[in-house]
Amino acid sequence: MRQEIMMPMKKKAVFLALSVLWALAVYGSTVNDGSLRYEVLLTGKMLDDAKLNVQFIKALDITFGRFIFLAASDRFYLLGWGGIEPVGQKVAGTVSSFAYTPDGLLMAVRDKELCHMDLQGNLSRLFGLPSRSMGIAAGKYVMYVYDRNKDRQKNALYVIAKGGKYAKLFEIPAPISSVVEMNNAILFAAGSALFHYDIKSKELTPFFALPKDKEIISIAADEASGRIYFSTAGSFYIIKGNSAVMISDKFGGVLKFFDNGLIIFDPDKKLLIRIVGLNDMTGVGE
Hints:
This protein has helices at 9-19, 44-49; strands spanning 30-33, 36-42, 61-62, 68-71, 76-80, 83-87, 95-100, 106-110, 113-117, 123-128, 135-138, 143-146, 155-160, 166-172, 176-182, 185-190, 193-198, 204-209, 218-222, 227-231, 236-240, 243-248, 254-258, 261-266, 271-276. It is mainly beta.
């Protein structure tokens, strides 16, 4: 069942009305750079204007209502064309990651447990997890949770099926920083490298690496074009075929490909932008 977070009725009506415009325009400024268009969706000034002193965690998702969903360690937020609003109730414990399931249920990792959010905005425990502060990502039909604690000697990726059953897919020495599903395979980042895991054959292979002092923190994919995006804290790249190109060395962060645009979120800088036109770039992977 698809789920939207409950909001105060007056504010919810405003956001629902504005969501119709979401595909046509965004709040903030737009900068054109050749074939690329940069849309500024969130800045520190927007938060100051909304009187929100928030330190966001390194995570984002898109709701079925086409809002951007963000979180601090103790509260969730919706970002729409009209601004940003806290939603739901304050969280007891510490939220480390979240993602929407394929059928629209919000799931979050709180401390050492997996939770879901009810229609009143409360987090309810589903079951315990193998370790604390795990990451979570959505596949086409299943969910994935993964170890990302640098103190662990073994870091595992687990798949969660409907009904709450989960199974370990593999273990690696390095913490896993990001996971995305693409064309019946799992792509993930660990340390300075990107890996490919074939779900059917269970074969795990590396396919790209940066210098060892560069940590990859996020990965996103556009299945339609076959392009893969990944980022460090201060840069982001695009891969198609056997070629990789740095798009910018000025900013990086958490990535999400959505509606033919790449969303980049740097919670430390309180900056969230969307880049359109990456598919028009020539000379990548040709």
